Amino acid sequence: MTTVNSDNPEVLRQKLEQFLCEQDGATWCRYGQFAVGTAFQKIFSVDHSVVGVEALARPFIDGQPCSPLELIATATDKGENIFLDRMLRAVHLRNFARLNKPARQLYLNHDLQALIESEANMATRALYQARIMELGLTDTEIVVEILEHEASCEDALALVSRNRRAIERELLALDDVTDCELVYQRCQRIEPDIIKLDISVLAYPNYAAFVAQVRRPGLVIVQEGIETQAELERASQHCDLLQGFYLHRPQLATDF
Question: Radius of gyration (Cα) for the chain, nearest Å?
Answer without folding.
Answer: 18
